[in-house]
User: What shape does this take?
Amino acid sequence: MTTPFLLEVTMKRERSPVGKFLRGVRDKKREIQQEVAERMGVTKSQISHLETSTRNVSNINLEKVTKGYQLNNSEEEQLKDLIGLKSNFNKLQGIDVFYQLLQLPLEVRQRIAKAVIAYDSLELVEKKK
Assistant: This one.
């Protein structure tokens, strides 16, 4: 009886634009992942995941990434563009406002709802004109 032949296949993942950008910034500064990781307070493995795009940059850790990679203003703006924070900024603010509204007493939320409905009605009337 023969043993089955096992073929090991390794798939190379293509880096996302964010991963390419962060790796490029680090390479340009001739730094190793460990240096970036220490500034961010994370492990070298997490930096590797970030650069290979198995982990995403979000608005929650954008400040850490900016500090860790020592991004200048231009680079930070590029990163925001790449991760879509600029386009999602208003959406994120809306979620925060909604959450804050939920913390208000029921009576206040009901008054706000009535005001929004009244405003929407006025808007519809103006659109018909």
